[in-house]
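Per reviewer request, we include the raw input and output of the structure prediction for the construct analysed in the revised manuscript.
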Amino acid sequence: MKPTVYAPFLSLVALAACNNPYSSSYSPPPPATFTTFRAEGDTFTIADNLDAFRAALGGPLNAPNTPPADSGRREINWDGVPAAVTNVDNFPATFFNVNSKRGVVMSTPGTGLRVDSTAFASVNAGLGDQFKAFSPKKLFMAVGSNQVEVDFQLAGTTTNALTKGFGVVFSDVDRAGSTRIEYFDAAGVRIANLEAPAQSGAQGFSFIGAVFDSAVIARVVITSGDAALSATSTDLSAGGISDLVVMDDFVYGEPRPLP
């Protein structure tokens, strides 16, 4: 699938200045442009799109716990998370910048975060056959919410940072529009809002990611499906009313210093 280049809307402040007759000398900066990578299907289809996304980020894969770099990318696939913080509802939000230094800190409006090795059968036995792992076998979700915020910091530090691209592999997106990633700059302006494609087959994968011309992304908000997973959840494909979606791999550009 061919990537698509977009130019997001100007911020409301910039638009107001452009329409202000007393600001005729104001020249707002051009909106950041980005390329979208979007795919749905089996492991091989997603892998091809993901490789193109990695190439667009540029540079090598920077290993966990290495110092901040000038280029390259970082990845999270959850599978190296130790048993002590797997299959529990209090996965540390700072794990991937303290325990395994990769430059991200997570939060949720829910009650916690969870890395799971049972395809969430340990949360709800009825979900045991619902979700497949793209990179076996652990998966990720928010607890008590369908949203996760990811903020970027220089790897291994508490210094806020920017990245040029971010993408996620999702498992079991059944309904168009249920799953998305919103991208925000350092001023808190939303610069992109991308929907993950719904899968055309049962229990497949979806990938969505954006690569900007430069490092401008300060944080992202991920919405996974219509509702949070719970002990009583039933997915749309199993007769429920909500599209339940979980996350696998995160891939993103090396977090870089703010200008």
